[in-house]
Amino acid sequence: MYKEKIAEVKKSLSNVFTNISDLKTLENIRIEYMGKNGKITELSSMIKEIPNEDKKDFGIALNEVKNIFNENFEKIKKELEEKAINEKLVKEAVDVTLPGTKIKNGAPNILEKIIEEVESVFMSMGYDVVDGPEIEEDHYNFELLNIPKGHPARDAQDTFYVKDEDYLLRSQTSPVQARVMLASGGDKPIRMICPGKTYRRDADDATHSHQFMQIEGLLVDKDVSLSDLKGTFDVIAKKLFGEDCVTRFRPSYYQFTEPSVETDISCFACKGKGCSLCKNTGWITVSGAGIVHPNVLRNCGYDPKVWTGFAFGFGAERLAMLKYGINDIRTFYQTDLRELENFDRREDD
After folding, report:
1. Given a cut of 90, is residue 9 above it in pLDDT?
2. What are the DSSP calls for 172-207, one per residue?
């Protein structure tokens, strides 16, 4: 009986491998014959029922059937796999003569470039670049800087308080100056700048932002005067806006400096003749500054009879807007790659 079954399976193999067009169909045939309940697998399980004298002939016949199946299966499998690869190569062919796809690249934010440029100039003059906490104590942000509780100048700051009125998002980077003076023990000269984020309750528009970058500086030494401050600003202005840039001081008022000044630079667009950028004055205001108030020195451990100094501050965004002709401060905080490309082009120019 086993001979008839082997003959039946052998006969079926002569037709089962014709017209196979895909690997899935071929896999179904493998399962049909060689799977757990397959036809050839079933033949192999009959070995225990075969009389001993017939087992050798049965084994030879069974191996012949297996070889027929395996040879045909492997041959067709190889052909179908090669066909699939060739079709995939044709379908996914790449024309290497086509131009490559241009990938947009980002660029460092223009504020970083301005700040690094300013830092480089000041470090060349012996200044240290320092940093401080953005969540600040009222004591450092106001009181040490000659702005006691209840003082009207606090209203102008429009401060973000985060815990009662003792902690706040710093409204200026001046508290870093106070911290450095206190840490110096009141008996060492200081040259420092402190660029960093500051926060005020401003409505965001083209020229105002609730968060902006400020660059403040401080020099404390003996016999420091406004002429030293003027010379320092002359160096900065020429480095940032060209060797023909001229600076001037105008009287002003700040609670932490006395005397206080507004610093103007000659308009680099019209060379002082008058244009829309300088509002036809020939001058552009870029900074507030002055001689450090004696009360500030005293509050921070320095004897104002021995030590003097000057302080200054300007906005990084304002410098960048002037230098690169940017009309909207919000541009600095967007992630539009087209704007970043513009920054790169401006730098190349």
Report:
1. no
2. SSHHHHHHHHHHTTTSS-EEEEEEEEEE--PPPSSS
- pLDDT band at residue 139 under the 50/70/90 scheme: very high
Residue 104 backbone dihedrals phi, psi, to 5 degrees: -70, 135
CB 208 within 8 A of CB 202: yes
Mean pLDDT of 159-188: 90
Q: Is 43 exposed, middle or buried (0-12, 13-18, 19+ CB in 10 A)?
A: buried
Domain spanning 110-348, CATH architecture: 2-Layer Sandwich (3.30)
Residue identified by tokens 């001979």 is 3
Give the CA distances from residue 76 to residues 39, 43, 68, in Å, rounded to whole numbers and listed in that order: 20, 24, 12
Q: How far is CA 112 from CA 118, 222, 323, in A?
A: 10, 33, 14
- Residue 349 pLDDT more than 60? no
Q: pLDDT value at position 338?
A: 67
- Contacts (Cβ under 8 Å, ≥6 apart) of 36: none
User: pLDDT of 63-74, one tens digit each?
Assistant: 888 888 888 889
Helix (H) or strand (E) segment spanning residue 284? strand 283-292
What is the rounded average pLDDT of the residues 302-322?
91
Burial class (CB in 10 A: 0-12, 13-18, 19+), 277: middle
End-to-end CA distance of the chain: 95
CA dist., res. 71 & res. 241, Å (int): 83
Q: Coil, strand or helix: which one is 93?
A: coil
Structural domain boundaries in the chain: 2-91, 110-348
Work out the burial of residue 317: count CB atoms within 10 Å of its CB; fewer than 13 is exposed, 13-18 middle, 19 or more buried. Answer: buried
Do the Cβ atoms of 229 and 312 come closer than 8 Å? yes
- Could you tell me which residues are beta bridge partners of residue 221? 308
Question: Phi, psi at residue 255, to the nearest 5°?
Answer: -65, -25
